[in-house]
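Page 42, continued from yesterday. The earlier attempt failed because a stray header line got pasted into the input along with the sequence. Redoing it now with the clean sequence only.
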Amino acid sequence: MSTKAALFALCACVAWTASARADDSSGPTVSLSLAQAVSLGLAGNLTYRSAQADEEAARARVIQAGAGKVPSADASYTYVHAQNAASFSIPVPGPGGVTFKSFPFSSKDVNSVNATLQYALYTGGAVGAAIGQAASSLAASESQLAATRSTVVRDTTNAYFQLIQARRSSAIAAEAAAVAARNVATANELFRAGSAARADLLKQQLSLANSQVSAITAANAAALANADLANLLDINPGSTIIPTETLSEERQAFSLAELLGRAESRRPEVAASEDAVAIAQQAIESARAGRLPAVALSVQEGSTKPNFVNVPQPQLSETLAATWRLFDGGLTRGKIAEASAQLDKARINVRQIANSVDLEVRQSYLNYVAAGAQVSAARTAQTSADENLRVSRVRFAAGVGTSLELADALLADTTARTQYVGALANLRVTLATLQRAAAL
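This time it went through. Structure tokens are written below.
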């Protein structure tokens, strides 16, 4: 392969990558900061929107449960039309003999108006238990919404910085291919001058081919990362997303003890598990209400017109009713036993969630600390690899270095630079994971 051929292959590789991007990017170019990406992620995430609907439904159930504490009023109106009015006849003597005279005692059209006021004076604790269950359910829904939001923020942040990493890695791979092409040109000149063997030229051509394949693979990975983030944000899949954030080595200092304490007190999952215990306790109270009497007061006002004397006659009545179920075949006892078992399960779940959160915080903290150390190590490795590549190119151009040495130096430098970018991105990803775990 000549120098012109190597350069032509590199140009073809770059052109193919640009063409693929042009074909895939049918949508607009969108510049997004991390905050903007998170906002879009929250607005378009179906799971988060579903959790919002659950919270609204739980809030409505609180209103429903509270209705049992206040009186209820009903009003009704009835209109009845009869084809024939009821009547009775009596004999009436007259000059021509006895005749029968009809006297109606009902109307063909009857209007009735009724109003009823009902109030549950005592329910055995059923109403209070229902209100407590609804309130605890609302708190659990709010905690679940907060947990879902934290998850969306974490996933969006991860995808955002993974796109940055993929773009940087693609640029590094393309630059490595360009360096490999220049190495082929240098090897070809040395081969023509008789200072290098044909094997040296072939080695550099092979290195160029490998670099071109790596550049294509990296460009494809960047396109996939762009598509993944677009899908997560629920925007045009063909959009080209330009992240405005940068990768940096900036680190934050955390105390593991403080993180554990914060997670224990503020993690939504922990709060939701504790709310589940409260719900189970209220369910027991609701079940026990089946053993107690219920007392209700009812006041009813009704009038019908016309009546026998064709004038409205209001009828006010008051009813005080007490109901006590003396035997239900074990239904109430079974409900109490079921609710007690659910309470035990809820308490066990609290411990499981607490242990899980504790482990998650520890893992996230250690991963973040390790990510910081990896950044320092990767930076040192990149600095060393850059210098090694520079020296190898000088040695090869002077005819004192081998093609194998140069190819290895190029590969090592590309790997080191890619690993450094990956370490920077991983630092931000592990930070987002730690923030999610500790409810920061």
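Notes: Residues 1-25 have pLDDT under 50 and may be disordered.
Reminder to self: strip header lines before submitting.
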